[in-house]
Amino acid sequence: MTNSIIETVLDEANKRNAKSVLEVHLVVGRFTMLGLEQLRYCYRLLTKDTPLEQAKLRIEREEGRVRCEKCKFDGPIQFKEEPQYHLVYPTLECPRCGGPVELTAGRSCYIKSVKLRA
Amino acid sequence: MSNVEKVVKHDAGEVFDIELEESILKANEDLAAKNRELLQRHGIKAIDIMGSIGSGKTSLIECIVQRLKGKCRIAVLNGDLTTTIDADRVAKHGVEVIQINTGKECHLDANLVAKAFEEMRLDQVDLLLIENVGNLICPGEFRLGADKRLVVISVTEGPYMVLKHPFIFMEADVVVINKLDLAEAMGVEFEKLRGDVSKINPGAGVVGTSCRNDLGIDKVIEALQISD
Questions:
Q1: CA distance B16 to chain A (A)
Q2: Nearest CA in chain A to B140
Q3: What value of ipTM does the predicted structure carry?
Q4: Which residues of chain A make contact with B11, given a CB cutoff of 8 A?
Q5: Residue B117 sits in a domain of what CATH number?
Q6: What residues in A contact B201, CB-CB < 8 Å?
Q7: pLDDT for B10
Q8: B183 lies in a domain?
Q9: Considering its fold, how many domains does chain B have in total?
Q10: pLDDT band (50, 70, 90) for residue B218
Q11: Secondary structure, 3-state, chain A
Q12: What pLDDT is stored for residue A4 in this prediction?
């Protein structure tokens, strides 16, 4: 994953004849399986000796949103608590009517923008 | 020569922002959509079978194949890091089996499945069962283009498997809880696990099975809507 992020940014930088990359702005959904700690670690390793070496990696989280077919609820995903295990987990249960909902946001991972130096 | 007089260029050292909106997961999503289209064109129903290591994914496939092999033409893709152990087990039942060895990857992706399609006679298949790599984490992220996603767990993994892995259960259309014959010995209740699935994903069907004793298989087939 980190590799394909870096490749995409390098392609863009080459296309625009940029000397270096100053910032990569990434959006990562809370409902992807990506671990940010690992992502940052791999990014640091893989950008060494590339035009991205000094580029800051800015990560914005995309929150989960759901839509209910039945009652037409459209809003943030609901979380439930299991205090006995100190656990908070997401649910595809409609916060309004209790029916099943569909996840409409939170699974993205995309490069929103890059800051380049000519 | 251009007739345009005003050309705005970046000066050396100038900093500029580029809006990219380039999706990283999209490559897999696009390939999955292509796989799905190809399967639909050939009238193939495909099931992505995910689940924990040793939960009984292969056993469940064997049970389903035994039930349905006289009724429709079945092909099985077996995803695993190495070995053809699972593929060999399924091949004994006389259906087409293709092993996908991922090497070190902990999940199948749409590209590997597309490559397997090249080895298959798709016009001779009605039902495709895809056994994903045993793992309750990353397979959820990478859709393959299947019609339905099934997650298999078993009571021997203890009572907390569902709540510990909410993301993969959010992805599931059907959840199978296997090895019910060992539930009492393990002190694990099927109803507790079923309740946990419903708390996370009330839209998912939950079926209890004991593949070793060939129990509950008809209900799985019914939940997956693959009986004809």
A1: 5
A2: A33
A3: 0.77
A4: 118
A5: 3.40.50.300
A6: 91-92, 100
A7: 61
A8: yes
A9: 1
A10: very high
A11: CHHHHHHHHHHHHHHCCCCEEEEEEEEEECCCCCCHHHHHHHHHHHCCCCCCCCCEEEEEEECCEEEECCCCCEEECEEEEEHHHCEEEEECECCCCCCEEEEEECCCEEEEEEEEEC
A12: 87
